[in-house]
Amino acid sequence: MTNALRSLRWYGVLAVVFFGLLPTVMLTLLVAGGHTPGQVGLLLIGGIPLVLAAIVFVARGLTGSDPELAARRLHLGMALIAGADVLMLGGNALIRMASA
């Protein structure tokens, strides 16, 4: 179980960085620069708290001593990141398609 948990911790950190923080920052910069419709900013209202909650769960999974509880927290954190991506990036795509 320890070997699987170690790789899950790596995947959790990579998911936070590449699928949580980077898309959120890029979408925020698009909205702030005026390069995307204004309604996309409303998606950030729901997406940013999901990413922050995911960061908290992944951090608690990284520092947990119980392997089962740590794995559960890491899975939940990665699921929250996936939900935030669907909301922000999928919503951005749908809004752009509707406005074009």
Helix fraction, binned, reads: over 70%
**Could you say which structural class the secondary elements and strand pairing correspond to?**
mainly alpha
Indicate the proportion of strand residues: under 5%
Radius of gyration: 15 Å
Measured distance between first and last alpha carbons? 50 Å
Q: Based on CA inertia axes, which overall geometry fits?
A: elongated
Number of domains: 1
Please summarize what this structure is:
With 100 residues, this protein is an all-alpha fold. It has helices at residues 2-33, 40-63, 67-99.
Could you characterize the architecture of this molecule?
The model has no long low-confidence stretch (mean pLDDT 92). Helices cover 89% and strands 0% of the residues. The chain has one domain (2-99). 24% of the residues are buried. α1 packs antiparallel against α2, α1 runs parallel beside α3 (67-99) and α2 (40-63) packs antiparallel against α3. It has three helices and no strands.
What key phrases describe this protein's structure?
0% strand; elongated
What order do the helices and strands come in, and which of them pair?
Elements: H1 2-33, H2 40-63, H3 67-99
